[in-house]
Design goal:
three-stranded antiparallel sheet; about 0% helix
């Protein structure tokens, strides 16, 4: 979940890949600044089953694991 108020759903850009996720959107109230989140994921997801929902006060990203039931130690892969 990313806390951000009053975003237009069309302004939120996402890119889901097998082991990566990227989310970006213009910062509310700032014309030239952009929020960016880029994660190298702990394990594989199914990109076609991942989604983003934009609500009044948050952006919620839902990832679908490729191996259901596999417990991830963290969302990000550690170097």
């Amino acid at each position: 979940m990313i806390c951000a108020k009053n975003l237009e759903p069309s302004s939120v850009k996402t890119d889901f890949k097998d082991r990566e996720v990227s989310v970006s959107f213009p910062m509310p109230g700032a014309e030239t600044e952009e929020y960016q989140l880029n994660l190298d994921l702990f394990d594989a997801v199914v990109p076609s089953n991942c989604k983003v929902e934009v609500a009044e006060v948050k952006v919620e990203v839902t990832l679908r694991k490729k191996v259901a039931g596999l417990q991830w130690k963290d969302i990000e892969k550690k170097e």
